[in-house]
Amino acid sequence: MDIRAKRLEELIKEKLSALLLKGLKDPRLETFITILGVDLSKDGRIAKVFVSVIGTEEEKKGAIKALNHAKGYIQMRIGKGMKVKHVPVLNFLLDDKTEERVRFVHNLGEMEKDEKEAH
User: Fold this and answer.
1) What is the model's pLDDT at position 1?
2) Domains of the chain
3) Separation CA 107–CA 53 (nearest Å)
């Protein structure tokens, strides 16, 4: 992937993160949401946005649904100030890997603690 595409991915990620911090007026987005990464298609017209949501399964599904429902508005907002011919169509996808890693690290810590207490 070329440098321009990588920069665009990073710019989209930054703008999305800032927009989420300012808040979108949807109660389904009141949970803790992190933009993990953006993957642009080769032609630059579609961007997969990988999102981590901390919460219940229902909150996760609701957050992704809300983001995809508002993607036209979000695209318009992040497109302002970007010097591109076409703002990519955003597709929000849930990435549970981060939550799994946090649980794994926590479990390792618990195992080490139990081991030290046993000795």
Assistant:
1) 58
2) 3-118 (3.30.300.20)
3) 20
